[in-house]
Amino acid sequence: MSKFIFRNIPNLVVLFRVILIFIVIFLFSIESLISRIFGLGLLVIAALADWLDGFLARKLKLSSPVGAMLDTLGDRITENLLLIFFAYKQLVPLFVPLIFIARSLVSDFIRCLCYHQNIETFSIQKSKLGIIFVASRFSRVLYLLIKIFIFFLGGIILAVETMLQNLDTLLLNLKLVIIYGSVILVFFNLLRFVLLIYDSRNILKEIFTK
């Protein structure tokens, strides 16, 4: 039992992160400054857990293709749930979560096909642009930072909404920032998706023409 737990420490961290996101959304849905500040605190912990699972996998030499797919699954649940919630709260346009959901379903389907061809997630990218904008550590970190910025800004806006006196102008400016930021995030998301399709075109052609 202890050996099983040790081998799955990174996966358990992913599970912990997903559970935290449900709690964060619950706290954000309560119209209370204390609840929303507490939700922001848990969002910080979830962001740290996102870094921690990868760090532990490398440090303990527990990295595996399945672990990488579970980490991606955790990312999908996190980003899609938060974007749906923020769209429900009218902080981001509805098309943002809709595009994210559609893109994640198709891209993960492609990655699943590649996995059965013994091709790991970021090994799909062979083009120069694919490597730069999808597979490179810089692009992944930048993409993650933009998402974290959107999520935290959404939480801050919800907290500010509970203190409306003399904060209307600040609230309006923050809402404009999150809208423009979410549009930038969608463009980045779609760029990575197009490059994934482009770099996997030969694999997909081979699979669907058999």
Q: What would you say this structure looks like, in words?
A:
By secondary structure, this protein is mostly helical. The protein has a domain at 64-208. The protein contains nine helices and no strands. The protein has helices at residues 2-7, 9-28, 33-59, 65-88, 95-116, 128-135, 137-161, 168-199, 201-208. The mean pLDDT is 88.
Key features of this structure:
single chain; 9 helices; mainly alpha; globular; 210 residues
Short description:
By secondary structure, the protein is mostly helical.
Mean pLDDT: 88
Distance between the termini: 43 Å
The biggest beta sheet is recorded as: none
Number of helices: 9
Which structural class matches the secondary elements? mainly alpha
Number of strands: 0
Strand content: under 5%
Give Rg in angstroms. Answer: 19 Å
Which spans of ≥5 residues are poorly predicted at pLDDT below 50? none
What is the molecular shape?
globular
Q: Percent of residues in helical segments?
A: over 70%
Order of helices and strands: HHHHHHHHH
Task: Lay out the secondary structure.
Elements: H1 2-7, H2 9-28, H3 33-59, H4 65-88, H5 95-116, H6 128-135, H7 137-161, H8 168-199, H9 201-208
Helix pairs in contact: 2-3, 2-4, 3-7, 4-5, 5-8, 6-7, 6-8, 7-8
